[in-house]
Structure formats: structure tokens, C-alpha cells
Amino acid sequence: MEAELISVSPAHRLIQRISHFLSGLYSSRLNPIYYLGAITVFLLILDVLSGIYLFFLYEVDPKEAYESVEGISSSFIGSLMRGVHRYSSDSLILFAVLHMVHMILTDRFRLFRWVAWVSGVATLIIFWAIGVSGYLLVWDERAQLIGILTAKFFSVVPIFGHALMSAFLGTDEKYLGGMFRILLFGHIALTILLIFTLWVHVMRISRPRIFPPKYIMALITVYVFAVAVIFPAKSDPPADLGKVPFGMSMDWFYLTGYPVFKVLPLSVSWFVFLSLFGLLTVFPWIIKGKRNPPARVVEEKCEGCEQCFVDCPYEAVYMKEVNGKKKAVVVENRCAGCGICIASCTYGASTIPTVPFTDMVSGIAQKRPDLVVFRCPFSAEVKGGEGVEVYTLPCAGSVNAVWMREILKEAGGVLIVTCDGPDCYFREGTLWTEERFLGRRRPRLLKTLPRGKVRIVEAPSVADIEGEVYRFLEEIREKRLPEDVRIISRGSVRHTLAWAVLLLPFLTFYPLTVDRMDFYPRDRALLVLTFKYRSSPVRKAEKVYSKLEHMKAVEGIAVERTPVEVVLKMDGKEILRKVYNPRGLRKDASIYVYEEFLIKPGDHTFHLVLRETAYPDKVYTLELRKNLTPATSLAITFSEEKGFFNLGEGLK
Questions:
Q1: What is the pTM of this model?
Q2: Which residues have a Cβ under 8 Å from the Cβ of 9 and sit 6 or more positions away?
Q3: Residue ending a domain, choose from 245, 262, 285
Q4: What is the pLDDT of residues 467-476, one digit of tens each?
């Protein structure tokens, strides 16, 4: 029977060692490792509330955005709220990733759990997008460089091209203002979208843990506010549309992927990005594993009490009407094979091959042991021996309290070994077991039975409970049992250490959000060519029809425009010759150009020519001589009034 059950893996056992240590500090009921997902949700709430405060004081106009952020930071409350917003969002990413790793190592992401996993990956991507858009709205040098690097990344996609990069460097502040409004709307819209993805994340889970225990929430709130006070969130210098920042302060929680752009071509970066998140999305189907056989309901025995429907942790049971009576039905592809529904049924209508009640009772009647032990594969090992009979079931939650009437006739006592409280592999097996045997949940342990003969021990597979087993055996043999069911768990909090251990991850926030990184070599100068050009039409619509006179075009509308050729020479040597096509499916929109050149510092002459390919006589030129020092940029742009001109050297 045990061979048919899924069991604890080496990776899961490693996590149990860590969680068992933490349970010694926090107690099993308050162990933060069991609430990583709930902690993430709580941090999201802190993030949203502080974000709402900042929203009402923020100026969305890029001309005023930086000053408004600095104005917010100039007051204590504003600086505190900005810090809470920064560090709650950072810790949100940290705990979301820890939650994901925990799910992988404990094998809680495959089979019947795939919906939660896939929606979790989508939620993580949305978290990242919200964080990046939030940094852009500060409009400091970090925001500008993030914008340029992100635009470069998306420039590989034909629909974007060079258009996005022009927003973060140049003279078109109107275009940038529009981008800011889109970013702010996207920042808010994505936050609202999280409600949907989080709902999908838990929609197949009964009674999900949305919030961690109050003790954990109080500690986290104190830590976030304390970090915000001690290490106030600060901006980089203000953005300058006339130059490119060579480096920025890194927030490694959100900007981890950006250093990849330094070493890999954009197309390869896309491959890495899509491969990573594609692999994460299909991960549940890549790793094959064992699955417990599903439960089934014997329709003739079902009395429609709905207890199995209520108790199922994964909503794999539903009620349907058969001949005017309610009957339980199991959805096999959702069933975890935990057997919790077996313990929910007073009438024996739920069955599962891995819980052979009849065979177990028969074996107990023959051997008449002093102690019968029921355990799950994820709980502590118990050795069978003289006077001890051990049965491994898919979950301790599959032990039906009604069975005790039969078992205690033949055995001296029953020991149920469960997972460590909230860490039940099937979520609620431990909780339901304890509630049933304490008489708080149906079906209850009969009051007429000697209740002291039943004991429940919460212990993961890494725990040693031989002492507990030996003590219980002695009590049974010496007939000095308690009057009621006893539950043994790690129930005390060591406050002096508990607060310090949870503080450790929060202490990493400051160094991981102020580290500075260069994205261009500081021993070089940077030449940037960035402009928008509306070329001449090569084809116009001959007639434009409209029933309304005022909506008729005065002249023909361009339905196709000419490409342009750009030639750039530095010190007489050609470094660029390229043809750029108008955007749009019909090639009737403006042309966007963005090119970067790393050059040696020094005195240089530049000769730039733009020529329309369909109208060779239509030419714009620029002759320029500049002395560029290391870590400076020279940006050249274009306007119809001025032609080509220098945005600014960025000289220091």
C-alpha cells in the first residue's frame, strides 16, 4: 500500500528541516515559512495603501514629476510613505519568489495544482511590470536609463521598433507626457489586474490563506516602517532629455534582468526571457511524478450530508441531485487522492484504494496491538515492533473518527502522526483531524469512548518522536491515560529570537536597492542619433469620401511615404549607412531613428546626411565638431524647423 503513495522527496525533506527549526522559534501555528504566499498578499496591501497616498501628491507631467517626488520626500510622512512603498514592493518580490521556490521544493505545483502555479507565474510577471513602471514615473536618471534599456528590448518587436526609445531622449516632451500618462494608467490597471490573477491563483483552493497570522503581520509592518525610516528611499539625479545616463542605482529585486542587456544581444535577451518564463509556465508538465489514486463515491451509500463537499481542500467534490436526493460526486482531475473525504463520511460512501479500512480492522483484530499508529508519508517515521502496528495513509486527515469504535475494541490506543500543523501537504488534513477528534467537526469522536486512548502528534519527517511513542505506550500499559484526546505540537514562541530571524531578509533591502551599476563603459563617450522624421508621400488617396462636408479632406491623404537613407561619418570614416522605412502596415506613418555609437573620447568631427530615397534632392545635413570627454554623451536630433542639431553634450 505504501508503495502506491507519493512520499517526501529529499528536497522536501530539506525544507522540512528549515521549517522544523523555525517552528521551534515561532511555533508551528506561526511559522512564517508556512505563510509565504499570504505574506506576499499582505505586503501587496501595504504597497497599494502607500501607493494611493503617493498618487494624490504626484504630478504626472514629466516636467514636474521629479520635483513632485522630491517634494513628497521632503516631509517626514511623505518620505515614510515613499519608503514603505519602495520596501514593501521589494519584499513583495522577495516573498513571492520564496513562495515559488517553496512550492517547487515541496512538490506543490503539478497535477491538480497546475492552475495555481500558472496563475502564480503570471502574477509574478505583473509584479515585475508594476515595479518597473513605478521606477519610470520617478523620472530621475535611473528612470531614464530603465526607459531606454526597456525600449531597446522592445525594439526587436516590429510593432515597437525605435519609437519607444525616442520618448526617453529628445525634444518631444509631448510624446513623453503621453507615455507618462500611459505608464501611470498601466501602473494602476496592472495593480487592479492582480485581483483577478490572485483570484485565479486560489480559485481551486477551498478556504485559501489570504492573510498570515496577526503576529506575523505585526512584525512585518514594524520592519517595513523601520527600514523606511532608517534608510529613506532616494532618487538618482533628475533625468535630462539631452544626454544618456551611463549608470544608475540598482534595485536588484526588480532590475535583476537588466545587466543581461550589457552582455547579450537583444535577440538573445528575448530568447532568455521567453525561455525562462516559458519554462516556468510549463514546469508542471515537464517534471513527471506519482499521483495518488482518486477517491470515488458509492452513490447508494451517500446520504447527501455534504460534509465531504465542505471538507475537500481542492473543491474536487460537488453535489448533484439524483432522483430528488443530493449525492456527492468526485471530479477526478481535481482530486489530490488525499483521502480527507474518507474521514468526512459517517456512512462509508467515500472510498479510496490507499485507505483499506476493512483490511486494517481485520489486521488489528488479529494482532491486538497495544498501539495502532496512523501516519502520512510526510510525517515522522514510526517503527513497528512488539505491540506497535503502523499504517501509512495518504494523509492523516483520512483517519475517520468513527473508526475508533472498532479499533479501540482490539487495541490499547491510537496514535495519529500528522504533518507540522499548517504545513499539511494536502493543506487541511492536520486541522480537520484535530477538530474531529476534539469534537468540533463532524464526524466526531464518540464521547462514550475512552478519549484519552487517542493521541495526535504534529511532526514532520525530519522529527524524532520515538520518545513520544514510548511514553504513550507506557501510559497505555500502566493504564494512566488522560481523560481526553491530547495534541502534541510545537506551540510556544521564543520572542527574543523570533523577531530577529524574520528581520534578516528586511536588512538586505537597503544594500540591494542602492548598489550602482554602469551600463556604458566610463572610459568611452557615447554618440546617439535619435529623431522622428515624417517623410514625403509617394502615394496619396485620390478621393476621400464623406457625407459631412466639414469632414472632407482639403487635399489627398498620404497612403504611403518614402523611406530615408541616413549616412553618418566620424572623422571622415563612415560609421552608419542605413535605410529606414516608415512605420505602419501601409508605411504611411513617421520614421523613428535611434542609433548608439561608443567612441573614444577626444576631438571629433561628424558629418550627417539624411536623404529621402524617392526624392534624392530632399536632403538634410549636419557638420559638427565636438571634444568629448569620458562618460559623456552627444545626442543629435532633428526638427523640421531647425534640421539636425545637437541636444547637448552632457559634459561635466
A1: 0.91
A2: 107
A3: 285
A4: 999 999 999 9
